[in-house]
Design brief:
Blueprint: E1 7-15, E2 19-23, E3 32-35, E4 48-55, E5 61-64, E6 74-83, E7 87-91, E8 98-101, E9 114-122, E10 127-131, E11 150-158, E12 162-167, E13 171-176, E14 189-197, E15 203-206, H1 218-228, E16 232-233, H2 241-248, H3 252-264, E17 268-270, E18 275-277
Antiparallel strand pairs: 1-2, 1-4, 2-3, 4-5, 6-7, 6-9, 7-8, 9-10, 11-12, 11-14, 12-13, 14-15, 16-18, 17-18
């Protein structure tokens, strides 16, 4: 079945002036056009080809080999190309821009600004549409992850608390500012780890491997830095927050918690002038 908004593998049935007609098999009655500009350089009738299905400007089913920046029922980071009296139009890798109505905008969109957008199928019009009101497509009531899981995240926005993220395209989470020691921005996609799931199902996320599980996720990072530095770093529990932040990118609270874990685990010694690997 050819589904709008998704990749599908179809069979080349015949070539015509407009392009190639594709179907699920050689006897398919339901066909879709792949315009000539998207056809492969060499092909034979009966070959399989992977395409993306959507509606063209005339609302006709069409196939393309262009790669969209977002797929059906998922999130993308898209640039606003134009704004009309009806809504905004987003660049998403295809010729026809993705429409985001005013009612689906978290805040009024502006040309050339970038937004986290969810791609959905409007059941009333059978058209693909976008929404920047993303919370309606996320839920933390029934969780599909557990503590220490490796997950995929999309950074949605940064606040004084930290980085708000979408986890596996399903849940909302937060990377606290004290757990961030690299440059991350809205729209970044990366691997992360579930640090903690709170009683209210709010989810704490970290970017570092949770090799120390419940002890301290930044401990491994400090161990790696110690090894790189030859076994000694001139920081200790009395060092200033600025010195710790400048050298390691950690808050003093996170640093003290991490070296406390390492000291307890007999991985390091804490001296008056710094920390040293054992």
């Amino acid at each position: 079945m050819m589904e709008i908004g998704k990749h599908t593998t179809l069979v080349i049935l015949r070539e015509t002036d407009p392009g190639l007609y594709l179907g699920e098999n050689m006897n398919a009655e339901d066909v879709v056009l792949l315009p000539h500009k998207y056809k492969p350089e060499s092909f034979e009738i009966g070959d399989e080809i992977e395409v993306f299905i959507y509606l063209d400007y005339d609302e006709r089913l069409i196939a393309t080999t262009l790669e969209p920046h977002v797929l059906l029922n998922s999130f993308g980071y898209l640039r606003c190309a134009a704004v009309s009296n009806h809504g905004a139009f987003m660049e998403w890798g295809l010729e026809k821009h993705l429409f985001v109505s005013f009612k689906e905008q978290a805040r009024p969109m502006k040309v050339d600004n970038w937004y986290i957008v969810y791609l959905y199928l409007d059941e009333q019009t059978n058209r693909l549409a976008g929404a920047s009101k993303t919370n309606q497509f996320l839920q933390n009531e029934t969780l599909t992850i557990k503590q220490y899981d490796e997950v995929n995240i999309l950074v949605t926005h940064l606040t004084e608390k930290g980085a708000n993220v979408i986890i596996n395209g399903v849940h909302k989470g937060l990377i606290y500012i004290e757990d961030i020691f690299e440059d991350i921005r809205t729209g970044d996609r990366m691997k992360a780890y579930i640090k903690k799931i709170r009683e209210d199902n709010k989810i704490d996320v970290v970017l570092q491997t949770l090799g120390y599980k419940s002890i301290e996720p930044n401990a491994q990072f400090i161990l790696d830095e110690l090894k790189t530095a030859g076994g000694f770093i001139a920081l200790h529990d009395k060092s200033s927050p600025d010195a710790i932040k400048n050298l390691l990118g950690l808050s003093k609270k996170s640093f003290k918690r991490a070296i406390g874990s390492l000291y307890k685990d007999k991985q390091i010694t804490i001296k008056e002038d710094g920390i040293e690997l054992i």
